[in-house]
Amino acid sequence: MNSQKMISTRDLTKTFGDFVAVNNITFDVRQGEIFGFLGANGAGKTTAMRMLCGLSIPTSGEATIAGYDVYKETEKIKQNIGYMSQKFSLYEDLTVAENIRFFGGIYGLKNGEIKARSRELINALDLNDQKDLLVGSLPLGWKQKLAFSVAIFHHPKLVFLDEPTGGVDPVTRRQFWDMINQASEDGITIFVTTHYMDEAEYCDRISMMVDGYIRALDSPAQLKKQYNAESMDEVFYELARGAKRTE
Amino acid sequence: MSTLKYLLQKEFRQIFRNPTILRMILIVPVVQLIILPLAADFEIKNINISIVDNDRSVVAHDLIEEIKSSGYFKLVNYTHDYQVAFSDIESDETDIVLEIPDGLESDLIREQKGSLFIAVNAINGTKAYVGGAYLTRIITGFNQDIRAELNPGNNGASIGVAVINWFNPLLNYQFFMVPGILVVLVTMVAGYMTALNIVKEKEVGTIEQINVTPIRKTHFILGKLIPFWVLGVFVFTLGMFVVARIIYGIVPLGSVFLLYGYLALYLVAILGVGLLISTYSNTQQQAMSLSFFMMMIFILMSGLFTSIESMPRWAQWIAALNPVTYFVQVMRMIVMKGSEFEHITRHFVIMAGFAFVFNVWAIINYKKTS
Q1: More exposed terminus of chain A, fewer Cβ within 10 Å: N or C?
Q2: For residue B310, is pLDDT > 80?
Q3: Would the pLDDT of B176 be above 50?
Q4: Within the 214-273 window of chain B, which residues sit less than 8 Å (CB to CB) from chain A?
Q5: Which domain holds residue B246?
Q6: Number of domains composing chain B
Q7: Given B3, B14, B211, which is nearest A105 (Cβ)?
Q8: Angle, to 10 degrees, between the axis of helix B19-39 and the axis of helix B173-204?
C-alpha cells in the first residue's frame, strides 16, 4: 500500500437496477489533503461517499481507504474514519456532553481519555454554559460545529463531510472552515462535498461529478485556467450545465 | 463489552427523557387493566324478552314469573299478539320472543304434553345463543316441577348432575381475563416500542452515524433489546403484583419464579418480533402499521377472547404459530391452576424456538451496509 494515498479508487461503480449512480470513477486523495468533492444534485456524490465509508458495497471496481479494502475490510475502515452526514445525526435528546461521551465510548476510547478530550472540545467550542443542554435546543450553526468535532473526536485518519455547511450563516461557515483547516493541520485528511463555490476555493484539489462520472479533477487554480474562468462558479456552471440528471 | 455499556447508558437516558414512553409504561397498563377486564365480560345479562301469552293460564303465569325471577331476562313486552312481539325484534328492542300457545295448560293436563315456541334475534350471535340456552334451561326446570305436581305418585327416576367448577369456583370471569390481558399489555409495550425506537433512528438519520462506527451489529441490537426487556418485566410486575392484586385480588397460585422465567423467555421472542418489524420498515409510520397488523392477529388469534378449540382447523394453525397463545395459556395455568414446570415444558420449548427464529431472522436482516 502507498502510505501517501488515503483514498484510492479504480473504476468504482454503483448501480441500482438499470440506474448507474456512480460510473467508473478513478481518483486518489493524498494524506493531509483537503479534497473537495463537487457536483450538482443527483450527480452521485453521496452514493460515492457512502461506498468510501463502508456504508454501501460497490457494484464493481476497486477502492482502498487508509489502505483497507472497501469490500472486505469495512469494519477496519470504520475504525479509521469520521463521518458527518448531510442530515444532522447527533442525538437531539441527549445533552452536548452526553453525545460526546457516547460517540467517544463506541469508538472504544478510555474513560479518562473521553473526559480529557471532552473538556478540551467544550472549551474550544466555547460551550461550557451549554454542555448540559439538549443538543436539539442548540442553533443550527452550533450543532454543525459540534457534529464536526464529534466526527473527529476519535482522531481518525480521514473524515468525510457531506455538505457540512448547508443552511448555515456566512460567519459560522467561515468559523467552520477554520475548524476544517485546523483538523487538516493536525494531520486529518478531509473529504468534503459542498455546493458553495467559495468553499471550493479553500480546497487543495477538487473533483467535479456530472451524471455519475468525474468530469474534472485538479486544484481550483488549474481548473479556472483550464476552463478560462474567473471563478469556481463559472467552472461549475460550464461543467454542470451539460448534466442530464437533475432532481 | 464496554461499547455495550455506552449503548445502554444512552438508551436508558433517552427512555427516561421521553414523556410518551414513561406514560406508556406507567399509565397505560394500569388504565387498561382496570377497564378491559370489566368490559370484556362474556357473562350475558339483561337479555330482553318479549312474551306472547295466548294462554293466560296459571301455568303460563308461573312460567313467566320463573323467567323474570331468574335474573337474566328483562321483560320488555307482554302481549297477546305475535306480530307485536315480532316487530320488537325488527326494531331491536328485544332479543328473544317466547310464544305460549293457546291451551298450554289444558294440553298439559289432558295430554300430558305441551309445546312452546322460542324465536331468537340472532344479530348478536353470542347473546342469542346464550339467551336461548338460558331460557331452555329455565323451561326444563319448570317442566320438571310441573310433572312432579301433576303426577305426584309417578315421579320416575331422574339423573341428577352435580357440577364443581375447579380452579375458578365462582366462575369469576375476571380471574380468567386479567392474566390474559396482562400478556397483551406486555406484548404491546415490548413489541411496539422496540420497533418504533429502532425505526426512529433510521428516520432521524442517527443510524447512519452508528453504521459508520465500528460498533458490532450484535452490540447495537443488544443495546436496543435489553432496555425494552427491562421495561417489559417492569410493566408485568406492575400489572401482576399491583393492579391485579389490589383491584381484582388475584394472587398467582403457582410459582412466581416460574412465571418470571417464562416472561423472560417470552420477552426475548417478542423483542425479536419488534426488531424484525424494524428491519422491514424505514419510517415510524410503516412500523406502526406493520406492528398494528401483527398485534391484531396476535391478540385475536391467541385464545385470549375466544377458545382456540372452537376455531376452524386453519385458524388453529395460525394460533399455534402465535407466541401470544402460549403465554396466555401459561399465565392462566400458573396463575389459576398453580401448574408446575413439568406441565409447561412444551410451552418453554416452543417459546425458545420462537425466540431463536425471530431474533436470528432479524439479525440476518439487519444490515449495516447496503
Answers
A1: C
A2: yes
A3: yes
A4: 214-215
A5: 2-40+172-365
A6: 2
A7: B3
A8: 150
Residue B265 distance to chain A (closest CA, Å): 29
ipTM for the assembly: 0.86
Same domain membership, residue B272 and residue B197: yes
Statement: residue A187 has pLDDT above 70: yes
**Residue B163 within a domain:** no
d(CA A37, CA A34): 10
How far apart are the CA of A69 and the nearest CA of chain B, in angstroms? 14
CATH of the domain at B128: 3.40.1710.10
Residue B234 and residue B336 in one domain: yes
Q: Are residues B246 and B359 in the same domain?
A: yes
Distance CA B242, CA B236 (A): 10
Asked if B213 lies within 8 A of A94 by C-beta distance, the reply is no
Q: Same domain, yes or no, for B260 and B315?
A: yes
Residue B104: CB partners within 8 Å, gap ≥ 6? B55, B57, B59, B60, B114, B116
Number of domains chain A contains: 1
Q: Do B204 and A89 touch (CB under 8 A)?
A: yes
Same domain, B78 and B144: yes
| Nine-digit cell string for B40 | 370484556
Q: Please, which residues bridge with residue B245 across strands?
A: none
The domain spanning residue A212 has which CATH number? 3.40.50.300
Q: What's the confidence (pLDDT) of residue A2?
A: 46
User: Do the domain assignments include residue A132?
Assistant: no
Distance (Å, rounded) from C-alpha A234 to C-alpha B121? 83
d(CA A174, CA A108): 32
Q: Which residue of A has its CA nearest to B9?
A: A102
- Cβ distance B7 to A106 less than 8 Å, yes or no, reads yes
Domain boundary pick from B150, B181, B210? B150
Testing the interface with B: which of A22, A55, A80, A106 to mutate, by most B Cβ within 10 A?
A106
**B370 in contact with chain A, both atoms CB, cutoff 8 A:** yes
pTM of the model: 0.81
Q: Are residues B146 and B221 in the same domain?
A: no
How many CA atoms does the CB half-sphere of B55 hold within 13 Å?
24
